[in-house]
Amino acid sequence: MLRTAIVWIARIILGWFIVTSLWVLLYAVVRPPLTPIMVGNLIADAFEGKWYGIDKRWANLDDISPHLVRAVIAAEDMRFFEHRGFDWDAIEKAQQLNERFKGRRLYGASTISMQTAKNVFLWHGRNYVRKALEAYFTVLIEAVWGKRRILEVYLNVVEFAPGVYGAQAAAQRYWHTSARNLTPQQAALMAAVLPNPRRWKFWQPTGYIRKRQAIILARMSDVRLPGEWFQRRR
Question: For residues 51 and 44, what is the distance between their CA atoms, to the nearest angstrom?
C-alpha cells in the first residue's frame, strides 16, 4: 500500500514537472495569450461592479524604448543582470525590516524574474504555496528564457493601469504614442507606478510619483544594457 502511494506521488511530481517545463518552454517562443492574473483581475473587478476589460498589445523588445527597459530595472531590480532570479541581499534586508516594523507595511524583495514568474504563471497572494511556486517558476524561466526574454515578457504582461497590460497598450492609450518612442521622463513615470498601478496613475502623477520619477531617472544612467539587444532598431 505504501509502495503504491509512493509510486503515485512520484508520478504526480514527474507529471507536474513535465507539464510546467513544457509550459515554460512554450512561452520561450510563444506570446502568453492570457495570464491567471489578468483573468483573476477581470473576475474580481466584475464582482466589484467595475469593468476595465483586458487591454494588451504585444511589442517585441526591439519595439520597446530602451528608456523603459532601463527605468523598470532602475525602479524594480538594479541587480537584475547580476543575480540568477533571487537577490538574496535584498531578501535578507526585507526580512530584517519586516521584523523590525512588524504589524506595519510589508517590505518585499521580488526581482523582475520573480515578478515575471508570478505575473505569467500564478496569481496574487502571499501564502507559502504561492511563494514556493513563484520560486519554482523563477528558477525555470531563468534557466530556459534568459534575461532578455524575461524582460520582454514582463514588459508585455505587467499591469500599468487597471486592465491595461504591457508597455504598448499603456503607451498608446495614455501617451498616444508607441512604446518604441517613449521618452526617459515618460518611461520613468510608468515605472514609478509599478508597485501599485491601481492606486497611482502615471499619466496623472502625484507629488510622490514625481519624486519616484526623479529617483528612477537618476538611477537609469547606471543601468547598462547589452548592446546587441537593440541592434535592429532603426
Answer: 10
Residues 128 and 25 in one domain: no
pLDDT in tens, 144-201: 999 999 999 999 999 999 999 999 999 999 999 999 999 999 999 999 999 899 999 9
Torsion of CA 112, 113, 118, 121, to 10 degrees: 140
Q: How many CB atoms lie within 10 A of CB 222?
A: 10
Please give the grid coordinates belonging to residue 44.
Answer: 474580481
Q: What is the phi-psi region of residue 206: left when phi exceeds 0, alpha when psi lies from -120 to 50, beta otherwise?
A: beta
The whole-angstrom separation of Cα 19 and Cα 113 is: 20
Is 0.85 surpassed by the pTM of this model?
yes
Number of H helices, E strands in the chain: 10, 3
Q: Are residues 25 and 126 in the same domain?
A: no
Q: In the structure grid, which three cell numbers stand for residue 229, read together?
A: 539587444
Q: What is the domain extent for residue 167?
A: 31-230
Distances from the Cα of 26 to the Cα of 15, 39, 107, 155, 159, angstroms: 16, 20, 33, 18, 22
